[in-house]
Design goal:
Layout lengths: L1 H13 L11 E2 L12 E3 L5 E3 L9 E6 L6 H16 L8 E6 L6 H8 L9 E4 L3 H11 L1 E2 L1 E3 L4 E3 L3 E5 L5 E6 L5 H12 L12 H4 L4 E4 L4 E4 H30 L1
Parallel strand pairs: 4-5, 5-6
Antiparallel strand pairs: 1-7, 2-3, 4-10, 8-9, 10-11, 12-13
Helix pairs in contact: 1-7, 2-5
């Protein structure tokens, strides 16, 4: 019994592994950064456009992603949808949501399929794909570093969104996969304010979000820090139960 518990506890611990190297995964725009508004992409319907066409009159939530991602990207997009619903803001009326694929081989069909999975993703949501050069310019503007894991056939990448003012100026970066209503509303309000100061990089704080996720190189999957906390609690409970079973057995033998 104790052996089984310890094996289970060991399994819980070995599910955790080191995150990808910090110098290969990042989301940290430079001070005063702006989107490459002349970069050309294709939307989910196959229509060619410039990135700047989507940030003309309204602020935008810009989501770096790739549509074949089975982990973070979908969670981030669902998080955006949930936050907009909670805030009462509507894409296409108050703002635009622009997802941009970092994977140069993805096609409009991939973008369209991803859009269909996001509840409430209407005309104000745009899912773009582009060639290698356009994707690289977009990622560079966001300070967005990622790498392709050949073994797992997927990208190790950051989680978060950029809030962009009309014209393409980056105003805020919100890290993670859920975006509190008040924080999102304040960031979008700053994007509407022409007098708002230019973006200032968060420095060391920009890397803190990496601790919120756990990357397992054996499975290629990310999990929440909260899940790791649950694992720790489960381990403590297993060890506590093992200790109790041992103590009870010793008492019975003594009697």
């Amino acid at each position: 019994m104790i052996g089984a518990l310890l094996i289970a506890a060991t399994t819980v611990l070995t599910a955790a592994a080191a995150p990808p190297p910090a110098d290969r995964v990042a989301f940290a725009p430079r001070d005063g950064a702006a989107l490459p508004v002349d970069a050309r992409f294709v939307d989910e319907y196959g229509r060619a456009l410039r990135l700047g066409d989507l940030v003309t009159s309204r602020p935008a939530i810009v989501v770096p992603a790739y549509y074949g991602c089975s982990n973070l990207c979908g969670i981030v997009l669902h998080g955006v949808a949930a936050s907009l619903s909670a805030s009462g803001l509507e894409a296409g009326r108050d703002l635009e949501v622009v997802a941009v694929s970092i994977a140069p081989l993805e096609q409009p069909a991939d973008a369209f399929a991803r859009k269909k999975t996001i509840a409430g993703a209407g005309d104000g949501w745009h899912f773009l794909t582009g060639g290698k050069a356009a994707a690289a310019r977009f990622a560079d503007a966001l300070g967005y570093r990622y790498f392709y894991d050949e073994a797992e056939r997927q990208y190790a990448h950051a989680a978060g969104i950029a809030i962009v003012a009309p014209g393409g100026r980056i105003v805020r970066v919100l890290y993670g996969v859920s975006f509190p209503r008040a924080e999102l509303v304040a960031a979008l309000a700053a994007a509407r304010d022409a007098a708002a100061p230019p973006f200032v990089a968060a420095g060391a704080e920009a890397r803190t979000w990496l601790l919120c996720f756990h990357y397992d190189p054996h499975t290629g999957r990310y999990s929440f820090a909260a899940l790791n906390a649950v694992r720790a609690v489960a381990l403590a409970a297993a060890l506590g139960l093992a200790g109790y079973v041992g103590y009870a057995g010793r008492r019975r033998r003594t009697r």
